[in-house]
Fold these 2 entries.
Entry 1:
Amino acid sequence: MKISYAWPHLFLLLAATATAKVPAMAKVPAIVVFGDSSVDAGNNNQIPTIARSNFLPYGRDFSGGKATGRFSNGRIATDFISEAFGLRPTVPAYLDPAYNISDFAVGVTFASAGTGYDNATSDVLGVIPMWKELEYYKEYQKRLRAYLGDGKTIYTISNSLYIISIGTNDFLENYYAFNSQRRTQYTVDGYQQYLVGLARNFIVNLHGLGARKISLGGLPPMGCMPLERAQNLQNGNECMETYNIVAMSFNQKLYDLTRELNKEIPGLKLVFSNPYFVLLQLIQKPSSYGFEESQRACCATGMFEMGYACQRSPLTCTDANKYVFWDAFHPSEHTNKMVADHVMKTALYKFI
């Protein structure tokens, strides 16, 4: 299988982006986020689901040591992206009662941990489906208009950066799950095509609501997550290459989708933000980037735990900056920053 991404001199690029500072700018008045746990800042705290992280040790390195509902020891990638665009250092959750429209006017996330493009994925843990995230966005537009007035609202909507980060759960929590219905309905390639169709519809609908600058996020090397490695006993806990191949294949389809939609929709500026290769480098050569551990996570044993399983474990590491992963599924704050710096340099620079 041929993957047509060109990442020349990746090691030099990573070294540069690790310390790069993007100058503040005013071209993007707000960051608006849709997706899953990679970009959820606490929406799931407000719904009845076990897919939560609003308790320690989550958030222990966040400002004030607060467990906000981010699946990290600190900030997540979209927080760093917001800061890089000269906006606030965090992007708050839309359902968080601690914030109001004055906060959301410069940044908001509708993301829900455990969700996916596929409605069947959100049903697994009873979380917010993507169609509902879009409904919340419509409500947000009305609130924004009441707060800013028509003129400023139109400017904000058309000039904001919209970030979509989703898809991993569709495969790991749905398609590859035990007794998966989707696996009886689709081949893996067919399921990828089905998800790409859903992604296309979402972007078209978002554009119809006024969005013009959109970042479509790709999948990470999901076979290298500690949870997947821990289950790969027959191959010595190495990465599950089958899952990584699926991620690369799906990313290629999403990349192709961005090219198609940019040609089809006048005025659309759609970019593909790919975290796959930067994360793979951190995982394969952690010491080159200041990490000490990339196979196990910081939380608990670092092999299986996430969410409530991370609570009160005496095994949790003392310095999460030394770990590529915070829990068995999610990157540490330090990794999130490196990924954010990387996508700023390789994709989001087009909006500077």
Note: Residues 1-26 have pLDDT under 50 and may be disordered.
Entry 2:
Amino acid sequence: MQSPCCCLLSLLLYLVLLSGTWADLEGTITLRLLQTSTFQNSSFVDTEGLSLLEDIKLGYFDKRTWSIHLYQPWVRSPVPQADWEKLENMLRIYLQKFNHLINEGAMQTDIPYPFVFQCMGGCVLYPNRTSQAFAYMGYNGQDFLSFDTKNATWTLSQNTTLSRYVKAFLQNYTAVRDMVEMILNDTCVGEMKMFLQYGRAALERQELPVATVFARTPSLGQLLLVCHVTGFYPRPISVAWLRDGQEVPPGPVLNTSPILPNADLTYQLRSALAVAPRDGHSYVCRVRHHSLGTRSLLIPWGNSEVVLITGLVAGLLAAVAMAAVVVLWVWRQRNHQPKEESKSRNSILSKGA
């Protein structure tokens, strides 16, 4: 019986057995192969599978039809139809064996249902042409096992009856161990280099960031400057605040959110800087991104004088508005009083008559 991670890697790596030469792309490139299997009981398992090249989805496993569906059209074209059918057949066999192995381990170690098993494997290709492979297994959201690709050994991440059982199974079968080592250290990197040519256009896609700066006043003595940057791709970006031309160092007054995905396959983030309303400094949000080349996107907020003038103008407008309300009220009162006096005199005269 083959290792679950081994089978998953061999299956999904076959997906990228493409001809071609390595596109000399800049930066680090990572191929990730993911599997999540939820064991509801010994007879029902809900499985999801996903393959990613960086953040580009290559394909996923359709649990309803037990087949592979692709997100990118350039993944399918180099694979002959006969090979594709063999690939999907391998997937079905693998899942049957994987489910049997885990269910057997759960029964022998008295593990209660339901539980979740996860596998993640793949490799990283660095700009200097070196590479590093990785493989991890998880159980119920916790680290379970990891594979040492240099020594070809499995390491316990948690010391439980189930983890010892799975490790012993994986470690005792030398053929399985050797296959995992070969796939991670040789096949993964070799095939990813060939695969990059077909995905080069997607990997080199660039979208310019759009940035805006606005202010909030969480308290009377504090002004919060917010720089919102969105619509950029690829993911790496640098956002910093400049005070009088000097970068503000990390600290309690500076808070930058994680990089979050947008629905259109771009990214966004926010960087907030807490300042005093009248500190006399000027502030600029600086954005650096690969799509900008050597340039930087600079979005100024202004200085304390602008903030102060804005506050004074707002105060003056409020005072003028209050004065207008008072004048209108007095005018109405004066016009209303003669009418009341006239009505009163007419009433008295009518009574006298």
Note: The chain is about 35% helix and 35% strand.
